Amino acid sequence: xxxxxxxxxxxxxxxxxxxxxxxxxxxxxxxxxxxxxxxxxxxxxxxxxxxxxxxxxxxxxxxxxxxxxxxxxxxxxxxxxxxxxxxxxxxxxxxxxxxxxxxxxxxxxxxxxxxxxxxxxxxxxxxxxxxxxxxxxxxxxxxxxxxxxxxxxxxxxxxxxxxxxxxxxxxxxxxxxxxxxxxxxxxxxxxxxxxxxxxxxxxxxxxxxxxxxxxxxxxxxxxxxxxxxxxxxxxxxxxxxxxxxxxxxxxxxxxxxxxx
Length: 260
Description:
Elements: H1 16-23, E1 40-41, E2 44-49, E3 52-57, E4 61-63, E5 66-69, E6 75-79, E7 82-89, H2 90-111, H3 117-130, H4 132-135, E8 141-149, E9 154-160, E10 166-169, E11 172-175, H5 179-189, H6 196-213, E12 229-234, E13 237-240, H7 243-259
Antiparallel strand pairs: 1-4, 1-7, 2-3, 2-11, 3-12, 4-5, 6-7, 7-8, 8-9, 9-10, 12-13
């Protein structure tokens, strides 16, 4: 396929989202009246600790009162130093995150450097705004963006609203149907001097409590060996916590509950 040629005033440059719009690669959707039942993702949390940020999400997707999927991956690595967690219509969310990750890779190839962390947050904001027509038909997507800022040497977190508004959260954030429960747990347990281990344990406890109170949030499933996705991002980049380590943490939480 020949390379596209753009007039200087129309050149999308390193903006991958604008490029695929101009090329007509973004699928168009028409939304009929009424409602349709689609799988939705639920509770995700992110919190800062001394050396970076932890981001975590449960694995359950629900469609109405049904469990549509037990092992959905709601926390997705988007590049070496950032990740997105999603709540909302699962299909639209996964499509958005794939395009977002491609846009970051495209920028790096065109410009020869990584987009700044705040630039990434802005890019995701425009994608959420572009999804407004779908959101008005019940297919909304609300992401949670977290990463390590290489310039400031610290973890940073952004939450979004349905219009694409982005808000930097300086301590923690929670999204999804169980966010009230998970957010309360993190609010009570968060400290400015949290280390890596304490931050991971706090994220796990937040998801545990959300699963206890919210039917759309899945807890740890030892029978099927399915555990929430928990990852940390620091100066060394993204690292996902092993399920074996998570099993020990959730077993400890369960034992504490029995003791109570």
